[in-house]
Amino acid sequence: MTNLKTDRRSQRTRRILQEALMSLLQEKRYEIITIQNIIDRADVGRSTFYAHYQDKEDLMDDLLTHMMEVLSQMPGQSASAGLERLFPVRDLFEHIQQNQQLFKSMVRGRGLELFFEKGQEYWSQKIAVELQSYLRDGQAPVVPIPVTAHFVAGSIVMLLRWWLDNKMPYSPDEMDQIVHKLVMPGIQNSLMR
């Protein structure tokens, strides 16, 4: 019971610190946000912060990991969708469009750059697992799975960056179609001889 209580308290504190950082990112660049700013906004002590995180970068990494987990659990991703819908691109673009204030504020500092870096790393791992499931037992891919996964994740990140830089000229549905038309031939060629 004590362990569960401690774990819940710890999760709550982490969430409060993440929310404080997200709130601050909407007001100022990531580089100028200090731990003091974060703990003031979260209304926690410095020792509480350091009981959960090593530094501001550790908190940002945890926040981005949480964001990636939320984005990757969106309803658009389903094994029954087949290879054509390997990644919930439409849901990702739609979520970013709906939360564009947060993402616009992240542009001001290194926050968006960290989001893209973490996104590529995180999605690459998720996509690799998904790609592996499409291979029959004993079947070797033409291109190693980690290479293909990195390529797909990188393509999604670069198109997402382009989309944001150009003020979202296409709808999330159109971006989903664009991404899949561009990356699916490469995926299919990398898996099957």
Biggest β-sheet strands, sense, barrel: none
Q: Quick check: average pLDDT?
A: 84
User: Which CATH architecture of the largest domain is right?
Assistant: Orthogonal Bundle
What does the radius of gyration come to?
19 Å
Helix content: over 70%
Structurally, the number of domains stands at 2
Q: What spatial form do the alpha-carbon principal axes imply?
A: globular
- Oligomerization status of the protein chains: single chain
Structural class: mainly alpha
Polypeptide structure, described:
Helices cover 72% and strands 0% of the residues. It is an all-alpha fold and 193 residues long. The protein folds into two domains: 2-55, Arc Repressor Mutant, subunit A (Orthogonal Bundle); 62-191, Tetracycline Repressor, domain 2, CATH 1.10.357. Helix 1 (2-25) crosses helix 2 and helix 5 (89-98) runs antiparallel to helix 9 (172-191). It is globular, with a radius of gyration of 19 Å.
Furnish the topology, listing elements before pairings.
Blueprint: H1 2-25, H2 35-42, H3 46-52, H4 56-72, H5 89-98, H6 100-107, H7 111-133, H8 145-165, H9 172-191
